[in-house]
Amino acid sequence: MSNRVIAIDGPAGSGKSTTARLVADKLGFVYLDTGAMYRSVTLMALRHGVPLSDGDALTKLAERINIEFRHEDGIQKTFVDGEDVTDAIRTPEVTAAVSEVSAHAGVRAVLVKRQQEYAEKSNLVTEGRDTTSVVFPDAFLKIYLVADVSERAKRRVKDFEKLDRNTTLEEQIADIERRDSFDSSRSASPLTRTADSIELDTTHLTIDGQAEKVIELYRKKLEESGE
């Protein structure tokens, strides 16, 4: 891997996606949204009635569909087989099912290979629950975001409000705790903090503040490496 990769890991609602997107914009790197890739497979599985427990069928689905990221009007959008699914992959239905889909080793193998191919072409800022441990174990900088469960749940409620979807703080706390438990205990690429990841608590940080902290750590790593 000749290009630089900033890999951001952490549990649901810790701010991975928004932080990674901002850091990429500020540094001029490509933003690789690994979560959107798993959500895309999940959306297609729900649409086509593929059982979430059928790892073989889900793996074949992941192999078959084409997932693309495009910039339109200053916004990165996700497309599956030419269809804009940017909003569709963020619905509560997809959110509730994505952990089960992403737990299948075959699905992860297909998508991890595609993710690693991106690093052969560009400098990346990427996020996801195994970016620091499995996808990019040799990343230039590894960040592990954490935040209080209640704060993460508040962020989820705001995200759903933007999509005009109603949910409650209690529902999101329960869902986040369920996802944390599931993601940490799964056999394929469980959620874990690697020894060389820098932990960053985002509970009391704004999104801009989170991005600036990551950029500070990146610049410090550049100085230490003599680059």
Would you kindly provide a written description of the structure presented here, covering whatever features stand out?
With 227 residues, the chain is of the alpha/beta class. The chain has a single domain (5-216), classed as 3-Layer(aba) Sandwich (Rossmann fold). It contains nine helices and eight strands. It has helices at residues 16-27, 34-48, 55-64, 92-102, 105-119, 131-135, 149-162, 169-185, 207-225; strands spanning 5-9, 30-33, 67-72, 75-80, 83-84, 124-127, 141-146, 198-201. The strands form two sheets. Strands 2-6-1-7-8 form a five-stranded parallel sheet, sandwiched between helices. A three-stranded antiparallel sheet has the order 3-4-5. It is globular. The mean pLDDT is 90.
List the helices and strands and how they pair.
Layout: E1 5-9, H1 16-27, E2 30-33, H2 34-48, H3 55-64, E3 67-72, E4 75-80, E5 83-84, H4 92-102, H5 105-119, E6 124-127, H6 131-135, E7 141-146, H7 149-162, H8 169-185, E8 198-201, H9 207-225
Parallel strand pairs: 1-6, 1-7, 2-6, 7-8
Antiparallel strand pairs: 3-4, 4-5
Helix pairs in contact: 1-9, 2-4, 3-5, 7-8
Pick out its properties.
alpha/beta; 5-stranded parallel β-sheet; 3-stranded antiparallel β-sheet; 52% helix
**N/C terminus separation:** 17 Å
C-alpha geometry: globular
Q: What portion of residues belong to β-strands? A: 15-25%
| Uncertain parts | none
- How many helices in DSSP terms? 9
The beta-strand count equals 8
The major pleated sheet works out as: 5 strands, parallel
In CATH terms, the superfamily is: P-loop containing nucleotide triphosphate hydrolases
Query: What is the domain tally?
Result: 1
Q: What is the string of helix and strand elements?
A: EHEHHEEEHHEHEHHEH
